[in-house]
From TrEMBL:
BP-aspect Gene Ontology terms: peptidoglycan catabolic process
Domain Transglycosylase SLT: 51-263
Superkingdom classification of source: Bacteria
Gene Ontology MF terms: peptidoglycan lytic transglycosylase activity
Gene3D superfamilies for the chain: Bacterial muramidase
One family name in Pfam for this protein: SLT_2
Protein name: Transglycosylase SLT domain-containing protein
Length: 329
């Protein structure tokens, strides 16, 4: 990702797509311990990376916290995942559209206010919040700080491999090049996380999100929170787990990235692309928004047959990402 976030949308797709087949599934993936504590030396390196901007005592407390763990699986995911290969088509299914219409009705006044203030069509806000987290059903379980710290330490531990020697295996070259780029990004996002945590009087461990460090209903990266987070419900704080703030922040983001009122405006594909650099994502979001717009007059909030309103899927016991809780809003 370039300048913002990676959503958990694909997980929600996964959950929806496999609701029915899982009923007959008996195989359960074995639990593998993927985390390990950073060494004292690694903690010191992290402290030194940020001490120009933050108080050393604060950094010692943050990076010495036993909750800080190296998350091996996240390092690989961030270095190998290709967002553009994901399939978002399932978000157009009847159940997703039912959720979207229900959300539209429940948050009608807030959506209307944000739409007016930022000149962003309300249907695209609904579409993004659906694809990102299923309106809060799939918010992410990883400590955001762990995502960035893991990448930084992985890069630091590989310092000896730079500059990359001629003749290095091409796969290794790709890994190292991407690692260097991601480490730079992780440093800037971790700086933003520490900044916003301090501003909100929260521990940085308070924020949980996707494997790519995006959190909250709209799945913002910390840097996006600082730039485009908006106190939509006017309670004096920006909390992206609250729908009022999430709706206004998403509208603010889209307006800042060139959204022009009118779902078919040619600039709008680029505004959604800025939100998530994936063409399938862009097309899905705009298709959902147009469908909601076209069907507005005859919208019904009746639950379609064939979908349970509650249910737990994913038998790996991973909690939040495995659950569908449809009455959250
Ligand atoms: Ca607020």
């Amino acid at each position: 990702m370039t300048n913002r976030k990676l959503g958990l949308g694909f997980l929600f797709v996964f959950v929806l797509a496999f609701l029915a087949p899982l009923r007959g599934m008996s195989e359960v993936a074995p639990a593998v311990p993927l985390e390990k504590a950073f060494s004292a030396q690694e903690q010191d390196r992290l402290i030194s990376m940020f001490e120009a901007q933050f108080d050393r005592q604060y950094l010692t407390q943050v990076f010495g916290d036993p909750r800080l763990e190296r998350i091996e699986s996240l390092i690989k995911k961030n270095l190998l995942t290709q967002e553009t290969h994901r399939d978002y088509a399932d978000f157009m299914n009847p159940y997703s559209m039912h959720l979207a219409k229900r959300f539209q009705k429940r948050w009608e006044a807030t959506l209307e206010q944000a739409s007016r203030q930022f000149e962003v069509d309300s249907e695209v806000l609904v579409a993004i919040l659906l694809v990102e987290t299923g309106f809060g059903n799939v918010m992410g379980r990883y400590p955001v700080i762990g995502v960035f710290a893991s990448l930084l330490v992985e890069f630091d531990n590989n310092q000896g491999a730079y500059p990359i020697a001629p003749g290095t295996d091409p796969e290794q070259v790709h890994y190292l090049e991407r690692l260097a780029k991601k480490a730079e990004w992780a440093k800037s996002e971790l700086t933003a996380l520490l900044t916003l945590s301090a501003a909100n009087g929260e521990s940085p461990y308070h924020y949980k999100g996707s494997y790519a460090g995006a959190f909250g209903l709209p799945q913002f990266l910390p840097s996006s929170y600082l730039k485009w987070g908006f106190d939509g419900d006017q309670n004096g704080e920006i909390n992206l787990s609250h729908f009022g703030d999430a709706i206004f922040s998403t509208a603010n983001y889209l307006q800042s990235h060139g959204w022009k009122r009118g779902l078919t405006h040619k600039d709008n594909e680029e505004a959604v692309w800025a939100y998530n650099n994936s063409r399938p994502y862009v097309h899905t979001v705009l298709n959902i928004a147009k469908t909601l717009h076209d069907k507005a007059a005859k919208s019904s909030t009746q639950s379609p047959r064939g979908y349970g309103l509650k249910g737990t899927v994913g038998q790996d016991g991973r909690g939040l990402e495995s659950k569908i809780i449809t009455d959250k809003f």
